[in-house]
Design a protein that fits this description.
binds magnesium ion, 44% helix, 13 helices, single chain, 10-stranded mixed beta sheet, two-stranded antiparallel ribbon, Isopropylmalate Dehydrogenase, 384 residues, 2 domains, alpha/beta, 12 strands, binds 3-isopropylmalic acid
Length: 384
């Protein structure tokens, strides 16, 4: 093909992407405030099981959730709504990351408890549809991905605030093959996007008495977008004079998290999307693996709570699904309870999980030498 034609086509695609992002900026500028759950007569919790081990660990969370909120379900303050169809088969059949009818059901809820969903990778033989997680974060504008990691015996109390709608993920499935030889992906940072995640991170640090927020980027190389992220977070930090802000590059941060002498000094980490993705898996590994970590995806109107890991198709292929660890989803459930203002119940669940983890009467190994997911669910319920 003629070089000029190729260039024009690529520029046209880039133009469309920029237009979409500028429209998103306008929407962010006109955004309202966070919803106040205490003003709601009823809170609707939508449950999507997902793929692989997703339905198994999600069902366990629903069982624990029902045990914890029996009175509220009975008096109609809480409704738990099962939402079908967020499966890889249905998503491929409809060729949509979240089929329209599923998204419509999701939007009728206030908060979503979501099991892991399979993300087709390019070249895997499956159609290259966008990850359901990423699509949901964008569709519901869930801009903050909050991932706590706690290791009490080591004094580790990290909370990761990962920007959740921008960076490499904003148009991650819309990169451009300019020619057969040249491909370009895009990373996106906006002033509004950086400020809102920073405000949430600093608010959290203030409320919880953490005197330090660490901004993690790769601004020595990715100068424009990461540079702006730092600039905008620093601006927000001026409203929090009691909190020390420091800056780290993502590579050295991965190393420092291994440094036993230094790592407990970190408290709140504030990062663009992709670095947050990588560092939160690393951080969770110290706590006992990604199977132990939950995550909150928070927006102004909606919020979604999920495990930080994937759907573990290998466990299903090998017939080990019933040995999946429900702790990640149970942690996510605790975060959801706290988000909707049920702090006492959230604390109860967290305490039960901590107790089971410390006591180790049952241990999950992912195999038949360990407890099953539902045995572990019973164990947790027995401690509530
Ligand atoms: C996560 C996951 C997702 C992400 C994948 C499944 C798209 O790794 O929630 O961290 O990269 O955000
Ligand atoms: Mg991840």
């Amino acid at each position: 093909m003629d070089r000029e034609v190729q260039l024009n086509e690529a520029c046209e695609k880039f133009r469309k992407l920029m237009k979409g992002q500028l429209e998103r900026v306008e929407r962010m500028k006109n955004d309202g405030d966070f919803v106040d759950y205490s003003q709601k007569d009823k809170i609707r919790i939508g449950v999507c099981g997902g793929d692989g081990i997703g339905p198994i660990i999600t069902a366990e969370s629903v069982r624990v959730l029902k045990a914890l909120t029996k009175d509220l379900v009975e008096n109609g303050k809480i409704e738990i709504v099962g939402i079908e169809g967020l499966t890889i088969e249905n998503r491929i059949a409809k060729m949509q990351p979240i089929p329209d009818d599923v998204l419509a059901e999701i939007k009728k809820c206030d908060v979503i408890l979501k099991g892991p969903t399979t993300t087709p990778q390019k070249g895997s033989g499956m159609p290259n549809i966008e990850s359901a997680n990423v699509a949901m974060r964008k569709a519901l504008d869930l801009f903050a991905n909050v991932r706590p990691v706690r290791i009490p015996e080591e004094g580790i109390e990290w909370t990761i605030f990962r920007e959740n709608t921008e960076g490499g993920y904003a148009v991650g499935s819309e990169g451009v093959n300019v020619t057969d030889d040249l491909a370009i992906d895009f990373t996106v940072t906006t002033k509004q996007g950086s400020e809102r995640i920073a405000a949430l991170a600093y608010d959290y640090a203030r409320k919880n008495g953490y005197g330090r927020v660490s901004i993690v980027t790769k601004a020595n190389v990715i100068k424009t977008t990461d540079g702006n992220f730092i600039r905008d977070c620093r601006k927000v930090s001026e409203n929090y004079p009691e909190i020390v802000t420091d800056e780290w590059y993502a590579d050295i941060m991965t190393a420092k998290l291994i440094d036993k002498k230094r790592r407990k000094d970190f408290k709140v980490l504030l990062l663009p999307n992709l670095y947050g993705d990588i560092i939160s898996d690393e951080a969770a590994e110290f706590q006992g693996g990604v199977g132990t970590a939950g995550s909150a995806n928070i927006g102004k109107k909606y919020a979604m709570f999920e495990a930080i890991h994937g759907s573990a198709p290998r466990m299903i292929d090998e017939g080990r699904g019933q040995y999946a660890d429900p702790c990640s989803m149970l942690r996510a459930t605790a975060m959801m309870l706290s988000h909707i203002g049920l702090n006492d119940r959230a604390e109860k669940l967290t305490a039960a999980l901590d107790q089971c983890f410390a006591e180790k009467k049952l241990v999950i190994t992912g195999r038949s030498d360990g407890a099953t997911c539902s045995q572990y669910g019973d164990y947790v319920i027995s401690k509530l």
